[in-house]
Structures are given as C-alpha cells and as structure tokens.
Amino acid sequence: MATRDEIVAAIRAVDTRLDGLKPRILAQGDAPLKDGTWHVREALSHLAARANGVDRVAQRVRDTQAGKAPAAPRTIDEINADQVSERSTKSVADLLDEIARGHAAAITAIGELDQAILDAMLPLGFRPGESAASDLMLGGGPRHDNNHIDQIEAALS
User: Fold this and answer.
1) In the chain, which end has fewer C-beta atoms inside a 10 angstrom radius, N or C?
2) Which among 150, 144, 157, 148 is positioned nearest to 52, based on CA atoms?
3) Predicted TM-score of the model (pTM)
4) What is the pLDDT of residue 93?
5) Per-residue pLDDT reduced to its tens digit, 65-80
C-alpha cells in the first residue's frame, strides 16, 4: 500500500514538473497532443478536474462503507468530455492554478485522513479486482497525471 509520504511526494513531483513546463504550456496551450483529439488545454482541464484525488477516493470509501450505491455508470469518454466542457471558458493559466489548488488541498486532506480510509479496499469498478484506497490515490492521481504530462510535453516539443 502507498504511504502518505509517497503520495505527497508524488503530488509535489507533478507540481514541480508542471512548474518547469509552465512557460511552454502558456505559450502553446492550443497545441494538439500527438495522440487522440485533445489539445494541451483539454488535457489540463482533465487534470484540473481530478486534481484532488485524495478527497475523491476518500469520499468513495465513505460512500462504500455507508452502503451508498455508486453513481450510474458512465464511459470514460463521457466523464472526460464533461470535465473539459465544464472548464471551456478557463484560460490555460486558470487551469494550471486549479491544478495547483487541487494538489494543495489533496496534500492537506491526506494529512487529516484516518489510516482506516487509506487502508480500505475498493472495487476497481470497470476492471475486476480491488485496490487499497491509498494505491488508488497514488495511481489515479500523480501516476495518472504524469501520463498526461508526458503527452503534453511531447506536444510542446
């Protein structure tokens, strides 16, 4: 299971990476990604929507423990389209700020969580199996972010 320190370090590493790319991102926010149909700003919109993965996963644990039924299933494409659409009027700078605020909130939140939340096992949803909440916070947060930042960095080169 991922530790609090590992999750915090990974979130901070994403912030450092984005800070290093910021001048190029601001200059080329409309650059198309090399794969798919998104541009840099759409990828940033997606990252902004998911910036506080700690609270998102912790809430999923609480809902599961309370027996609350999960939301009606939607496809990844539907979810992503909504994330992008909700941020369509934001500038690239605003999106970078939203990501930074979400990451700061995630770092604060992880320090306040009971260990039982971090250790809780959750079903993976559309994939078989389950995972510890802490692993989902790491994998669905910073690791996921780095995959998209790889795409952004390739588009800026």
Assistant:
1) C
2) 144
3) 0.94
4) 98
5) 999 987 777 888 999 9
CATH code assigned at 67: 1.20.120.450
- Cβ atoms < 10 Å from Cβ of 30: 11
CA–CA dist 58, 64 (Å, integer): 10
- Taking residue 61's Cβ as centre, other Cβ atoms within 10 Å add up to 21
Q: Which domain holds residue 63?
A: 4-156
Q: How many residues does the chain have?
A: 157
Name residue 22's amino acid: K
- Residues sharing a CB contact under 8 Å with residue 54, sequence separation 6 or more, in sequence order: 7, 105, 106, 107, 109, 110, 113, 137, 141
pLDDT of residue 76: 87
Residue ranges of the chain with pLDDT lower than 70? 126
Enumerate the β-bridge partners of residue 130.
123
The single-letter code of the amino acid at 72 is: A
- What are the tokens at 31? 């650059």
The pLDDT value given to residue 134: 98
